[in-house]
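PurE domain-containing protein
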Amino acid sequence: MEIDKILESLSAGKISVNNAKKLLSLYSIEEVEGFAKIDINRSKRRGIPEVIFAETKEIEEIKKIVKKTLEKSNSVLISRIKKKDYPTILAFAKRLKITIKTGKNSSTLLLFKNPISFHGGKVGILTAGTSDIGVAEESRLMCEAMNCKCITGYDVGVAGIQRIFPILKKMIKEDVDCIIVAAGMEGALATLVSSMVDIPIIGIPTSVGYGYGEKGIAALASMLQSCSLGLSVVNIDNGIAAGGIAANIANRTIRKKD
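Tokens:
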């Protein structure tokens, strides 16, 4: 029984409070063959969809979790799919006859049964270079799964500082509620953007870089040491977390406006 039906039955006096609590408890966690427990109510409770971290899972495990999740909810994200597994997972998703959204240079898939309506807030997403796009697209898919409209501007880093102004002007005009900035190397773009706008900024240090401070270490340190207030930072390459935070901020903002 869906949550709405349980509450309607309780309101109509068709079931008792104890029965309603039992039904809600049973509905909230879905077990998959003893190896996974899915938090089915997460999207209703927190606005954040189920995310499958595929990098450490076998293909058959991923398939079973996807099927069980889509039985109880509208969408699921599959993140960090191994390169060798991506074609197989994509083919499997197509056989489910549902809508699939992919990201450019991204190993993440967004699957959903019913159309996603972008009635939430607005999120801007920037990357310093083209090598950061995959991580940024992971954030975009997460935001869209949470009903946010995304405005993107890629390859606008400090090596050619003039590139940032047109897209930043557009984001301000569109009144975005939050901006995600993905940057590798020294990660300077996040500080720059934070110093120019009165919008919350979420920095994603990416594992782009080499030598001293390689694999995102320099970008992470730089963003954490930023002297520009209004900038928060997630872990290296953590596009999913940045998207979840940004969408929560944007959606809460839109509720306040209403």
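The chain has a mean pLDDT of 87.
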